[in-house]
Design goal:
- Chain B: It holds the Pfam family Molydop_binding.
- The structure holds 2 protein chains of 2 kinds.
- Chain A is an alpha/beta fold.
- Chain A is built from 12 helices and 28 strands.
- Chain A folds into 4 domains: 156 residues, FAD/NAD(P)-binding domain (3-Layer(bba) Sandwich); 110 residues, FAD/NAD(P)-binding domain (3-Layer(bba) Sandwich); 80 residues, 2-Layer Sandwich (Enolase-like, domain 1), CATH 3.30.390.30; 67 residues, Orthogonal Bundle (Arc Repressor Mutant, subunit A), CATH 1.10.10.
- Chain A has a 5-stranded parallel sheet, with no helix packed on it. Chain A has a 5-stranded parallel sheet with strand order 9-16-10-11-12. Chain A has a 5-stranded antiparallel sheet with strand order 22-23-26-25-24, with helices on both faces.
- Chain A is globular.
- Helices cover 30% and strands 17% of the residues of chain B.
- In chain B, the strands form 7 sheets. In chain B, strands 5-4-18-17-16-6-7 form a 7-stranded mixed sheet. In chain B, strands 23-25-24-27-22-26 form a 6-stranded mixed sheet. In chain B, strands 10-9-8-12-13 form a 5-stranded parallel sheet.
- Classes of the chains: A alpha/beta, B alpha/beta.
- The interface between A and B is large, with 50 and 61 residues.
Chain lengths: 474, 705
């Protein structure tokens, strides 16, 4: 029997197992999970911060008993020669196929005072990566009533808005010149900051922390930000230690090919720890997609399946702020060969910038336009062209079904249920059917769903206006 | 002549079963809508023009048998029935009774549906019977049964909807498919989920326009919001349901931004939908074929039921979940034994007590009843194959047009040794048949139908049938006796069949035993279950003390139909369509109906007014997409999927998604929309995936010339 060992049990690994079982994978599956609780969905930590979900409700479905899940077990090494992994509990697990799903760990900035002498974060300072972090942060926030979020990337902005929604005083300190500067152009970044300020979140840009001491964060320019509690959201680093020690190729993440295979053909990697085509995995969506491909490869359902790479789509999860960035930000200003579409409406907090090649989105930022956020994400994700009417697509306006305005043509169907045209109604009117009931008897108009009754009544009035003239003329 | 001049009856088409009055006038039969609760004096063009069917020049007037020259030739009824019986006996003799099969329809009366099921199990002794309702109601039926322990399209009267504040219509387009229903939806704010901007969507307060095949992701996303925004009715869920925690372990991963990415429905619109449903005093969640006709159909309906349960809607007067049934007797047709896995009374054929009860009514031994057979599209796909049926009897259906992957289905039908079709017009399937049996139609016969709200209705006879037409009940008796059955076992009087159906359904989920023609004719509004009164042990032998059951207009008010009285959440996960778009087939095709046509159009395409209103097949395309494919309004396009190609005229519509085209499925030959659809089936219900196929479009210059 084939022995599949999976290191790590985040949502990506969970999805892999789910898909393997669905495809009838026959081998034995062993999961070695460093966390000591059932798998949960990390993407919803901000919902916990908002206070909308209890930590227990993030739990993902339990696998069938045939899947052996070891919790609280850290893998300490891989013996590629003997094809086994060793754990901190002294176990050895033999594998035919090994999957590394070790995830990422928070990147913590080197700010004096943030760490204690043993290198641990000091009290009242926490990253936001695990469920324990989330619970800790919620407690910190509740007890102090105010919090400083360090880092104005996606997670920082989401964390700040979630804690703000919980009713806390939040200050967001960001080193860049504008928020989410890796993904947004300055104009969008400014509007995002305004959206946050409008909710009462303090936004401090170009804020390079110089020193932390309990209660205050001092910035480079000498200013001080009150900081009884600090959430550190300054990015993550792929967790590659095991792969590195085992001699697998590691760049920023564990290097994998289109079948998520590392430089050892028996070892695969997926999710936040993996790097495909020079790019680290950056979204949970990419991790899911990788899990689906790897499941097809390992189950044999589609051994030739390959991971095409996932288009870079970053959708902010912050209630009431609709923001998506598509493609690499540097493409937003990619010169003359791209078609640039810009819509800027700062007064209403609406902004869009599209960089199009051959009608397709190379890169885009869309903010405050909820329908366009959805539409453009889908078009980009599927590589489909943007509608020719760019403005209508951005504004999400519903196209009129009937072209032309004013006078309806004779052929216009006014009663859809009974397929009655304006002409038929006018003829019946001319023959003496002068009100709605009489027209209904003569033409059946209004007798289906009844929704055209007002239209027919209006038509009656307008036809009545023309009658005296005709009769005079006659 | 003392012929009947006028009767109160119902429209021959959809499940709304609008009340009508038919009158024989000098110029022919006239119809007028009656003030029946479902239609309140309304009628759509199909209903108004239905009398034209009675006079259609294409009426089948003689039994036909295909001669040695390959042509269908008129014969006497005796010859036709004997040809069928001999063929069936020969095939059963060579290959066993399972080599004979029956395909029924959701338009048949309760009496016909019941007798057809009995005919298959008793006269043919085959398990191979199913019906076109699989293409219609099966997904909602599976999900409804799983959730509530009982499936009745609407578990409340249609008229309840008139007092609703908010109604979510998931994949339903009543403004075009069931227009008089809209009279009940004028007060409510409508939320419409449909990839197309249909007439119903245009009437809606909120239109959610998901990518085809992503409805379940949307349902999961809405449930997620209901919980995270605190709209979840904890007391209701605690007291009246089970399984929420398991369902939630799936919905938890469908945060609104992820649902937006998969479906294309903006987060803000998702939140608004949940808010509207939760804040309204009276809310309903209704599904239609758009949500149901997928290879994940039952799970998708389960997702919407989960949402309704989390919001505390089902089983409370003034709110709830329901499915809008499609075919005229789609409800009754699924309750009395046409379904491969069921016996009369809407009971499983595998249940020993059910088998014993029904066998007793039928006067046979339980052991002689076959077990469950193949579901519709499995059955059709097996025809003429090794181990599959060699003979098929078709009643009230036109699978050449209605079945998915119809080019393949036509091949299967062509490979049969014996295809028998009972119909009153030469449908596309009838034209392929070896024997065609001309039967009576609606205004020429008596019977009952069960409408979309589970209410029993009387169909009444106005006209004497044409000389050579026989009712389906006569046909079944004629065949059964030739197969050696006693005539009395297959009565030809609808009333007699109904009385037997009542006994067979007694004690079942759909219990009709307390319903009689007399009660219906007296004008009683009877919704099933309606059991017969039982005589108290101590009562005297007369029936004076017995009170007739009033029927059940509203189900589940005191508890759901599971033994513990609780509704079940279903653990469902989005899987997406069975095929995906790619560079060869980059667009989604979705199929549906037009206001002026009904089902495969076998009837409505023969009504001149309707043909004028909807004369031909077309493919609706967004102008951008048309331009990219080199197409323009009025030109012809070839629409190709991995299965086959169809050709249809191009209609431009800028309200479509640019990734989606739409084809109505009413039209025959090379324009059959089902040439494109997939054989993929829902594992829970057998529902085929009608609503999503990957296609490409090309101009067809020669046709447009």
């Amino acid at each position: 029997m084939n022995d599949l060992v999976i290191v790590g049990h985040g949502p990506g690994a969970h999805r892999l197992i789910d898909q393997l079982l669905r495809q009838g994978y026959a081998g034995r599956i062993t999961v070695l999970d460093a966390e000591s609780r059932p798998t949960y969905n990390r993407m919803l930590l901000t919902s916990v911060l908002e206070g909308n979900l209890g930590t227990e409700s993030l739990t993902l479905p339990r696998h069938p008993d045939a899947v052996r899940v070891w919790q609280g077990v850290t893998v300490t090494g891989i013996d590629r020669h003997r094809r086994l992994v060793r754990t901190d509990t002294g176990q050895e697990h033999r594998y035919d196929t090994l999957v590394l799903a070790t995830g990422a760990r928070p990147h913590l900035p080197e700010v004096p005072g943030l760490h204690d002498s043993e290198g641990f974060l000091v009290e009242n300072v926490t990253p936001l990566r695990t469920l324990d972090d989330g619970a800790h942060l919620a407690r910190l926030a509740e007890s102090s009533g105010r919090i400083t979020v360090l880092g104005g990337g996606v997670l920082g902005v989401e964390t700040a808005t979630a804690l703000n929604a919980r009713g806390l005083a939040v200050t967001l300190v960001h080193a860049g010149k504008h928020l989410m500067d890796r993904r947004l152009d300055p104009a969008a970044g400014r509007m995002l900051a305004e959206a946050l300020s409008g909710r009462g979140i303090g936004v401090r840009l170009s804020g390079h922390p110089r020193e932390y001491r309990p209660g205050a964060l001092t910035l480079d320019d000498g200013q001080e930000v009150a900081a009884e509690a600090v959430a550190v959201c300054t990015g993550v680093l792929p967790e590659t230690t095991l792969a590195r020690q085992a001699g697998l190729a590691v760049h920023r993440g564990v290097v994998v090919d289109d079948q998520l295979r590392t430089t050892d053909e028996r070892i695969h990697a997926l999710g936040d720890c993996a790097e495909h085509d020079g790019l680290p995995t950056e979204s949970s969506g990419a991790g899911r997609c990788q899990a689906d491909v790897l499941a097809q490869v390992l189950s044999g359902a589609s051994p030739e399946a390959h991971y095409p790479g996932t288009r870079n789509i970053t959708r902010l999860k912050a209630c009431g702020i609709d923001l998506v960035t598509l493609g690499p930000a540097e493409e937003l200003n990619s010169g003359d060969d791209a078609e640039a579409v810009t819509l800027s409406d700062p007064a209403r907090g609406r902004y869009a910038r599209l960089s199009l090649h051959n009608d397709r989105i190379a890169a885009a930022v869309v903010l405050g336009l909820p329908t366009a956020v959805a539409t453009m994400s889908q078009l980009h994700s599927a590589g489909r062209p943007v509608p020719a009417d760019r403005l209508a697509a951005l504004l999400g306006t519903t196209p009129a079904r009937h072209t032309g305005s004013g006078e309806l043509p004779d052929s216009a169907v006014l009663c859809r249920c009974n397929n009655v045209t304006r002409k038929a109604l006018a003829t019946a009117f001319g023959d003496g059917a002068r009100d709605v009931p009489a027209l209904a008897r003569a033409t059946r108009a209004t007798t289906g769903c009844g929704s055209c009754t007002d239209t027919i009544r209006r038509l009656c009035r307008s036809l009545a206006d023309t009658i005296p003239e005709q009769e005079d003329a006659a | 002549m003392s012929d009947i001049r006028s009767v109160h009856t119902h429209c021959p088409y959809c499940a709304l079963q609008c009340g009508t009055r038919l009158t024989v006038e000098r110029s022919g039969v006239a119809v007028s809508p009656s003030d029946f609760p479902t239609n309140r004096g309304g009628l759509c063009q199909k209903g108004w023009t239905a009398p034209a069917l009675l006079e259609t020049p294409e009426r089948l007037r003689h039994p036909l048998v295909r001669g040695t020259d390959g042509e269908l030739t008129p014969v006497s009824w005796g010859v036709a029935l004997q040809t069928v019986a001999t063929g069936l006996q020969r095939i059963a003799g060579e290959s066993g009774p399972e080599a004979t099969a029956v395909f029924g329809g959701g338009g048949l009366t309760n009496e016909k549906a019941y007798l057809l099921g009995k005919f298959a199990r008793v006269a043919l002794g085959t398990s191979q019977i199913d019906y076109n309702g699989r293409f219609c109601m099966s997904a909602a039926a599976s999900a409804g049964t799983a959730a509530f322990g009982l499936d009745r399209g609407l578990p409340f009267p249609v008229t309840d909807l008139a007092r609703a504040g908010t109604i979510l219509l998931a994949g339903a387009n009543p403004a075009e498919t069931m227009p008089p229903l809209m009279q009940h939806l004028t007060r409510a704010e409508l939320i419409v989920i449909d990839p197309r901007r249909t007439a119903t969507a245009e009437a809606a307060a909120l239109h959610l326009q998901p990518a085809p095949g992503t409805d379940l992701a949307l349902a999961l996303g809405l449930l997620h919001i209901a919980v995270t925004e605190g709209r979840y009715q904890a007391d209701y869920v605690h007291e009246r349901t089970t399984g929420f925690d398991t369902a939630w372990t799936r919905a938890v991963s469908w945060w609104p931004e992820r649902a937006e990415h998969v479906t294309g429905v903006p987060v803000a619109a998702q939140r608004q939908a949940v808010r509207m449903l939760a804040e309204s005093e009276r809310s309903y969640v209704l599904t239609g074929r758009g949500a149901e006709q997928h290879s994940t159909g039952a799970d998708t309906v389960g997702g919407f039921i989960n949402l309704a349960l989390a919001l505390g809607l089902p089983g409370i007067e003034g709110s709830g979940y329901g499915c809008l049934t499609g075919q005229g007797n789609g409800q009754g047709g699924r309750e009395h034994g046409q379904k491969a896995d069921q016996l009369p009374g809407y009971r499983l054929i595998t249940d020993p007590a059910t088998r014993e009860h029904v066998a007793d009514v039928w006067g046979v031994l339980p052991g002689t009843l076959p077990g469950p057979g193949r579901s519709a599209s499995e059955l059709l796909a097996a025809l003429g194959t090794e181990g599959g049926p060699r003979a098929l009897l078709v009643f009230g259906s036109n699978p050449v047009l209605s079945a998915p992957d119809s080019a393949a289905i036509a091949e299967r039908l062509a490979d049969l040794d014996l295809l028998v079709v009972a119909d009153f017009v030469p449908s596309e399937t009838a034209r392929m048949a070896d024997v065609v049996l001309p039967v009576t139609q609606w205004a020429e016969e008596e019977g009952t139908l069960t409408n979309l709200e589970g209410r029993l209705l009387r169909r009444r006879r106005l006209l004497t049938p044409p000389k050579h037409a026989r009712s389906d009940l006569h046909v079944l008796q004629g065949l059964a006796t030739r197969l050696g059955q006693p005539a009395g076992r297959f009565p030809t009087s609808p009333r007699e069949v109904f009385d037997e159906l009542r006994r067979a359904s007694a004690g079942g989920a759909a219990d009709y035993s307390g319903i009689s023609y007399e009660r219906l004719d007296a004008g009683e509004a009877l919704h099933w279950p309606c059991p017969a009164p039982t005589v108290p042990d101590t009562a005297e032998s007369d029936t004076a003390g017995m009170v007739a059951h009033p029927g059940t207009p509203r189900l589940f008010l005191d508890g759901f139909a599971h033994p513990d009285g609780r509704a079940r959440f279903q653990e469902v996960e989005h899987r997406g369509p069975a095929e995906t778009t790619d560079t060869r087939f980059p667009l989604w095709a979705t199929t549906g109906r037009l206001p002026a046509q009904y089902q495969t159009g076998a009837q409505t395409r023969r009504v001149p007014d309707l043909t004028e209103a909807a004369p031909e097949a077309f493919v609706q395309v967004h102008p951008d997409t048309a331009q990219r494919c080199g197409l323009d309004e009025g030109l012809f396009a070839r629409i190709s999927s991995a299965r086959s190609s169809a050709v249809a005229r191009v209609y431009l519509d800028s309200s479509l998604r640019t990734d989606t085209v739409f084809l109505p499925f009413h039209f025959p030959d090379g324009a059959r929309a089902n040439l494109l659809t997939q054989p993929a089936r829902d594992p829970r219900s057998g529902m085929p995936e009608f609503k999503v196929s990957a296609v490409r479009l090309e101009a067809v210059p020669e046709v447009s010339a």
